[in-house]
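Write out this protein's structure.
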Amino acid sequence: MQLSDRDLSKLDEEDLLNLSEEVLRFLSVHLLNDLKEARERLNLNSRNSSRPPSSEAPWEKDGDQNESELVEADNNANQTEPNPDKESSHKTQQTENNTTEEKRKPGKQPGAQGFGRQQTLAITDYRDHPPEYCEICHQSLNTSYKKAHTAFETVDIEWADKNNPGLRLTNTKHTFYEILCACGHVTQQTPYRSESGKGLPDISYSQWRLVGPGLASLIICLAYRMRLSRERIQEFLHDWLGLQLSIGTINNTLHESGAAALPIEAELVKEVVESKLLHVDETSWMELSTMLWLWVFSTSTVTVFWIASRSAELIETILGQSYAGWLMSDGYRVYRQYPNRVRCWAHLLRKAEGLKESLDRDAQNFGKQTLKLINQLMTAIYDARVHPPDKPLTEIYQAQLITYRQLCEQMKVVSHKKTHALATEMLNDWEAIFRVLEFPHLPLTNNEAERALRHWVILRGISYGTRTQEGSGIFAILISIIETCRKRQQSPWLYLTAVIHNRRTGNAAPKLPIVKGSE
């Protein structure tokens, strides 16, 4: 760079207009060279520099060819004279191939060789499932005359406790029987299988499963809490438990578990709507090639996630129009419809700090004044929580607030973009920002929601998001249960085990565990 930050901070529009033509030409050359160098630095990525791929967001990695490579490919294609007959034949063949590929469904194709389960495990327990009543006459059946008609094995784990530390793998054989009734009807006991639900229409859950509820809960833990890929989960189960499971079985287990847990969403939403203080935040999320957002709604007892577009639709669907609690959020405009809203001051402090370090003199002054006022008010709020003042803080600092509002009105019309943006934001959200002066007990930051997102933001960098709408729904409900149980100081894995077991047998999911210590 030919001009330093100090040099740029001393220049503004008025200074440039007062320069002579010769000096202005000389300065323009320096500015042009600096601008080119800055643009080149800005365009550096993992394909044209030593920057690692992990430094880029997932949606910045689409496409392996840059513009110059595409132009070169076009030029090479135009160097040879095309043969009309060959080109027509090639297009016909390509069309046929594309048609075949479009019709081809994922997974095993008809007529292809199948691969069955190879591992054989010793059976550790037997469970008999005979019918109890005749389906026709409803009379009790004599189980002494039962006849087996189907059976399957379920691999599960026994949970560790203080007396028996460690995990133990079990293999239970479930046998289902049929019995001839005195009325002549043969009643069969069959494994329970759910119908496809409304939320996940292509996914069902069944009693007939190789992976038991406890093992399913462990797989959920490895996938989401430990952030392991399906391949790494397969490796872990093989190396540590001596269990061979296919990638498809692991993936199906996660999907079925999410479908089984989906009804719990209604209970989570109810607690969100009835909360007295709600923290809301969102971060970008990719669903294959579609840009969506991972939303979090966090209260003192629940944390709920959704993956949806960044619009007011989700907020209105969850909270409705008449949410009565305090809503802590950032400056996103969809939150402004709720009157009891409070703003996160951490966002404002970061923006003001950025202006303070700006090269524009007006921006520097506005940033310093904003930081001075906010820091002064924060000290007063913390003191008010310990020693309530005789008068409301809004009255005590009325003069400072009036002066600062006038400054925001002035900065709203300046040409510096970030200065204009912060001044406009302060004016638009004035009441929400300074409402905490009337109610000092309210939080000053949205750290509760941001901390809830942090773990899943790291997972996003590993997995690049989700691939399907069903996968997004499964991910959201399972991590909601995990975070809610953690917030209540209860084991999410024991609870998920109970949920999966109940739902596989046709029963309702158990209620969310209560907060530990409130029994």
